[in-house]
Specification:
Glycosyltransferase family 4 protein, Rossmann fold, 14 helices, 6-stranded parallel β-sheet, 7-stranded parallel β-sheet, Glycosyltransferase_grp1, glycosyltransferase, 2 domains, glycosyltransferase activity, 382 residues, alpha/beta, elongated
Length: 382
């Protein structure tokens, strides 16, 4: 595990950049985000920010991540602004005291905004994984509860009002569509897809049916739904269902789980690679995603995915080619059984998934993001 250190000691380790920054690109870039990748609750958003920050550092930019909660040594500077929730209130003062200035401030908008354009006297860029419109009611118990209404309205105002001068980066066409749906002008939205690492040598596929779901165990991932469907699928396919990841829902989900279900908790990248290679199918029952990064990670290992036809997942799964997009619970269960029983079709989908995933690499993501960063700075100056 990375070593935890005081924020005052977290600085980028010296390393010669591979390439100097482009003349039009901002040299000093600060990411303002909820968590560092070292946080136990980190997920796809944190991985994306880390890959962007690391890639930009390699290209010669001076990158700082200002976040809440625990953080660790990186090749770029990391500054902790306080606790899980308190850092939202301290972000502005922490930026002033510990960062000072930058050429571009990138606000990572994941529900609760920092309202950076209202207090930062310089160009800002908003990075959006997904708009939380439907997730507020899932988190707070219904669309009419005060917390759900306030959260939804505040997020929508932050993305349409507070960000009205700058550009917004969406991680998928679905997120771009959601931004347009709440009133963000089309001409201010840029799409920059997630990438994936070169997977390296593949591990062997499991000899027995093995089905894997990977992600943070929170409400909107709907692992409880997957457990219900497993009771219908297991008598047909046999085998095991692995739930990879951890989160506040784990204890409840373990109590719901039937036979042949295993919860692995958090696993290393090496173990995740092995499990995605061994798996017959990746199962992704989430209600909404920004992109569905684990779908691309599994695809790079020739493992097709079954997911619901929801925002984000309809971007990362090519229906009928790299996996199946289900339109309901019965459709999900039927696709699960059909692919589990058809080795030939599963292998064809796996090869198509591998070829599709080859289009998405982190190097391309970083280049696309840097081009948008340069555009954001240029637009602010004109």
């Amino acid at each position: 595990m990375p070593q935890h250190v005081p924020s005052s000691l977290r600085a980028a380790s010296p390393r010669a950049p591979q390439h100097p920054p482009a003349p039009s690109a901002p040299r000093r870039i600060v990411f303002l985000a909820h968590r560092d990748l070292d946080n136990p609750a980190a997920g796809g958003s944190e991985l994306l920010v880390d890959r962007l920050a690391d890639g930009l550092t390699r290209l010669g930019h001076q990158v700082t991540l200002l976040c809440g909660g625990p953080a660790a040594y990186r090749d770029y500077r990391v500054v902790s602004a306080g606790g899980e929730l308190g850092h939202y209130l301290r972000a502005r003062s922490a930026f002033t005291r510990q960062v000072g200035d930058c050429d571009l401030l990138v606000e990572v908008c994941n529900g609760v905004p920092y309202l950076a354009p209202l207090w930062h006297r310089g160009p800002t860029l908003c990075l959006v994984n997904h708009v939380h419109t439907d997730l507020w009611r899932m988190r707070f118990g219904g669309p009419l509860t005060p917390a759900a209404r306030i959260g939804r309205r505040f997020e929508h105002w932050a993305l349409t009002g507070a960000q009205q001068r700058g550009l917004l980066v969406a991680v998928s066409p679905s997120t771009a569509h959601a931004l347009r749906g709440i009133g963000v002008e089309r001409e201010r939205i840029r799409v920059v897809h997630n990438g994936v690492e070169e997977p390296g040598p593949r591990a062997d596929r499991s000899a027995e049916p093995l089905f894997v779901a990977v992600g943070r165990l929170v409400e909107y991932k709907r692992i409880d739904l997957l457990l219900r469907l497993w009771e219908r699928v297991r008598p047909v396919t046999g085998g095991r269902l692995l739930i990879v990841g951890d989160g506040p829902e784990r204890e409840r989900l373990e109590q719901l789980a039937g036979p042949d279900v295993e919860f692995t908790g958090h696993v290393s990248e090496a173990e995740k690679h092995r499990l995605l290679c061994e798996a017959w199918l990746l199962l992704h029952p989430s209600a909404v995603e920004g992109w569905g990064l684990v779908v691309t990670e599994a695809a790079a290992r020739e493992t097709p995915a079954i997911a619901f036809d929801v925002p984000g997942l309809r971007d990362s799964v090519v229906d009928g080619e790299t996996g199946v997009l289900a339109r309901g619970e019965s459709s999900f269960a039927a696709a699960w059984c059909t692919l589990a029983l058809s080795n030939h079709r599963r292998e064809l989908m796996g090869k198509a998934a591998r070829d599709h995933a080859a289009r998405y690499r982190w190097e391309g993501t970083v280049r696309q993001f840097r081009a948008v960063a340069a555009e954001a700075v240029k637009g602010w100056l004109t």
